[in-house]
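Case study 2.
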Amino acid sequence: MTKATPAAIARFFAVGVFAAALGHGVWPQPISHSWAVLAVVAAPLWRLRRQTLLLAFAFGFLVTFIRFDAVFQTLADEDPALRGVRVLEGTVSELGEDNGRSRALLSGVNLLGGGEARAIRGNVLVSAERYAGLLAGARIRVRCTLRAPSTPFVRESARIRDEIRAVCYDAGDVFVESPARGARQALIFLQNKIIESLNRALPSPQSEFAIGLLIGNARSPLPAAVRDNFRRTGTSHIVAVSGYNISIVAAWLLAVLLWLGFSRRLALLFAFLGIWSYVALAGALPAVSRAGAMATAVFAARLLGRESRAGHALLLSAAAMLLLRPALLVFDIGFELTLAATAGLVVIGPRLAQKYPRFFGRSLLAQTVTETSAAIIATFPIILWRFGTASLVSPLTNFLVTPAVPGAMAASALALLFGFLPLPFAALFGLVAWLPLSFILNLTRLMALSPVASVALGEFPWWAMAVVYGLIGFWLFVPSRRIAEPPLQQYGGWQIEEC
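Prediction:
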């Protein structure tokens, strides 16, 4: 029987948050229905006979359900002021690009007119000509035509996830009222220097690829053909700053500090600081920050010497994000894939190492193969559900490409450092990075030419995804009667223990 310890209470609260985020996202009913939903979901928990745990689950469920209901109420509120030609101001919270145009999500929006500023709930999506001064964190003012968000410009999932109440079309000149200052200004200056250095040392598309590996592609996007190659081969995760990139940086810091003689705890502490320095350098965009938070939770568990609790730390960090933005679990594919991949590294990776020690050992290459396999296994059902496609070349491509990514990042960092030298020397060091970058680009291009690179499977229902996850769990976690499992061991610092 589960004891009502503080850790158990926190876990049940987090499970309640997940249940509400999933239930209300799939079935967006009014708040009056939440009690009925809670009763159905919590019914199996009565067997615990632990009222404290049940109350923790119920509290997490209701808080998240109420927060989610407020999102739907905000989006359902029809405000005539959010239609027609208007002048508005807001803070750029997210920034992207589509067909050569800047797309900025504005939060803290005020409608200007008649000498007054009227605050509105929710966010506004602005579409403007590509504008170099449009940066995350800046306060801008723009005149445009406000319309209701609709497809194909705004997907329904994005409307709910980002709480978009209106889209700002035909935006004219964008006036930056309060440009980035202080630390953010220094960060932008550093990003500009990184882009300038890599563009001097490397040709296109290797330069854009290197920029994407190191700081993300928001400032220097990859060509469309290259992006499509990564998408078709199931390797898109390596061209954007994600949990995988963050884990590589943290692993580098950890290995170097341990080699220099630092204690394990001190090395983990510096790795923790390195994670958030890297997140800041990548612009601290919400998706990057969420990946950093998940990686932080895992490293925090290791720092406290509770490596077997890394899964619990991941659960709690994800629940904290869902409390703030409950729509992420159902309406943000990036969040789902990041969470699944991180959970795969924490849960599936060690299990693979334990179940198949001949294939997933302790060497650096074996651990790279294990991490890649765990991430593919954990995300494959979600990809089937969300996209209805399967890349049959993805396992082989990831197996060949992923071991080259750390070297490509290291070589790109070297090209960055020497990119400010006179051009012949910059190009010489750029050649060191050009080799692994070109290997990855050419390999994905060749693999994408395969007729089975992207196989359409049609609609893949959610229950089929659940069945696939159930089969994966049965395969990995149900002991085999014929083959005795090897003794418990450590994989990549994660201690496997019986439950």
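Confidence is low (pLDDT under 50) at residues 482-499.
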